[in-house]
Design a protein that fits this description.
It contains three helices and no strands. It has 66 residues and is mainly α. The protein folds into two domains: 31 residues; 34 residues. The model has no long low-confidence stretch (mean pLDDT 80).
Length: 66
């Protein structure tokens, strides 16, 4: 192993730089305008599930009537 990598401070500095670069990459990905439509669709998924379950309950209620 090279001598400059044996110092624990250097290893911690490299680790910090790698994590910081990964963080910046995730932030850029999350706020990218290309992803907006996908995130908007994902944000509405809980509401779509409620609409499906409400329509299923309406159908079940209709089946119970004589």
């Amino acid at each position: 192993m090279p001598a400059f990598l044996t110092d624990i401070g250097t290893l911690r500095g490299i680790g910090t730089a790698v994590v910081f670069i990964a963080f910046v990459a995730v932030v850029l990905w999350a706020y990218s305008s290309k992803r907006k439509s996908s995130f908007d669709e994902a944000a509405n998924l809980p509401f779509a599930d409620e609409a499906d379950s409400a329509s299923q309950q309406d159908q079940k209620a209709g089946d119970d009537k004589p």
